[in-house]
């Protein structure tokens, strides 16, 4: 995967990690633009290649009454507006083969959710759009098995694949990141650490996913030290009232300090 091939990506010569970041779900235009503007300002200052993340639809919810979106086309148009306003690439997750073609009209990176990483038809449909495909490692999959997921992309002729590790299920309600998998998966594609989802605590009796956001800094620093190519961090300016995954997102106001620290750590890691 060649990062510089992403449309409108900036700072690719900085030797920094790249960042996929934004809200869990698109809740409206104003919130998306507000979050994007804040992160664009920071990443331009710190010379971090940046891709805005927002789900146009949330399909894998615990409860039937959970928030799933504001409407597919409406949310996708907001993602396009973010891209056009700030001249940055965007990423969203897809859940069906039909989603792939639809979302590809609006965004630059199609993300395969971890639960669907083995769905061959979905991965191939995403690859055939020609867009970059970000495959989240299934919580039930080994690092070695991600070679086959990446091959499903590259064997269509699409060389733009990314692997994102969001941890492995430990018991029923915790995710554990095994950093031994980073060098293994880097043999197949650039590796991103999904910092915030790896701190989720799913399967709560309430039907609402919990999390441990106090450990976001610890997890992100560990990822950089382990040599990941990129970080995935969901963020919101009002996590307590976010419509999806508020319990494990980073407060937007904390983003500057975290990214500044991570850039400094990356400079040290680069020395090795």
Automatic annotation (TrEMBL):
Gene Ontology CC, one term: cytoplasm
Pathway in which this enzyme or protein is active: Carbohydrate biosynthesis; 3-deoxy-D-manno-octulosonate biosynthesis; 3-deoxy-D-manno-octulosonate from D-ribulose 5-phosphate: step 2/3; Bacterial outer membrane biogenesis; lipopolysaccharide biosynthesis
Record keywords, A-Z: Cytoplasm, Transferase
SUPFAM superfamilies found in the cross-reference section: Aldolase (SSF51569)
Residue runs in coiled coils: none
Location within or outside the cell: Cytoplasm
GO biological process: lipopolysaccharide biosynthetic process
Catalytic activity: D-arabinose 5-phosphate + phosphoenolpyruvate + H2O = 3-deoxy-alpha-D-manno-2-octulosonate-8-phosphate + phosphate
Gene Ontology terms for molecular function: 3-deoxy-8-phosphooctulonate synthase activity
Family to which the UniProt record says this protein belongs: Belongs to the KdsA family.
Record's protein name: 3-deoxy-8-phosphooctulonate synthase
Organism the protein comes from: Maribacter hydrothermalis
